[in-house]
Design a protein that fits this description.
Layout (H helix, E strand, L loop, with lengths): L15 E4 L2 E4 L2 E4 L12 E5 L8 E6 L4 E7 L2 E6 L4 E6 L4 E5 L4 E5 L6 E6 L8 E2 L2 H9 L3
Antiparallel strand pairs: 1-9, 2-3, 4-11, 5-10, 5-12, 6-9, 6-11, 7-8, 7-10
Bound molecules: dTDP-4-keto-6-deoxyglucose.
The site of dTDP-4-keto-6-deoxyglucose has 8 residues, from strand 4, strand 5 and strand 6.
Length: 145
């Protein structure tokens, strides 16, 4: 799925949980993230780890970039805002991803000890794609384009 060309219009309804196939056998579990599993082509992967339980990684939104977040280990909460509504999602399964389209504000908190968040991104790192102040995000969403 291409990034929504009008990120001012994306809403919480565009966010979804993705089931990641799990191969289980006597050796344990193996999950694969490949082509059809994701709504975009993988361009970059990074991960958050050794996050203090008191840390709040907030917040930001992307104008064009999309993300899938996976709790590879442990758990954490993600508060998602579209400028009108908000909801909180807890990720705690390595075979479940959270798809966040462009134009959605996210804040992350309540990382459990030893948790690891894998982030799959639709594009290379580009600071100009970020909205890092919530007021800027709100103005961005209120724009008519
Ligand atoms: C997101 C959430 C889930 C880089 O130099 N390259 C990179 O690819 C990334 C992702 C970050 N950075 C630098 C930019 C900052 O100086 O690493 C520092 C920490 O990044 P940031 O403050 O953006 O971290 P978070 O946890 O607020 O947000 C990150 C991603 O930036 C964001 O895209 O979706 O994780």
């Amino acid at each position: 799925m291409a990034a929504n060309p009008n990120p001012t219009m994306t809403s919480l309804n565009d966010i979804r949980l993705i089931d990641i196939p799990k191969i289980h056998d006597a050796k344990g579990n193996l999950s694969v993230v490949e082509g059809p599993t994701l709504p975009f082509e993988i361009k970059r992967v990074y991960y958050l780890y050794d996050v203090p339980s008191t840390a709040e990684r907030y917040g930001n939104a992307h104008k064009l970039q999309q993300r899938v977040l996976i709790a590879l280990s442990g758990s954490f909460e993600i508060t998602l805002k579209d400028g009108k509504n908000e909801k909180v999602v807890t990720l705690n399964k390595p075979n479940q991803g959270l798809y966040i389209p462009n134009g959605i504000w996210r804040e992350m908190r309540n990382f459990s000890s030893g948790s690891v968040c894998l982030v799959i991104a639709s594009d290379d790192y580009d600071e100009s794609d970020y909205l890092r102040e919530f007021e800027d995000f709100q103005s961005f969403k209120n724009r008519t384009s």
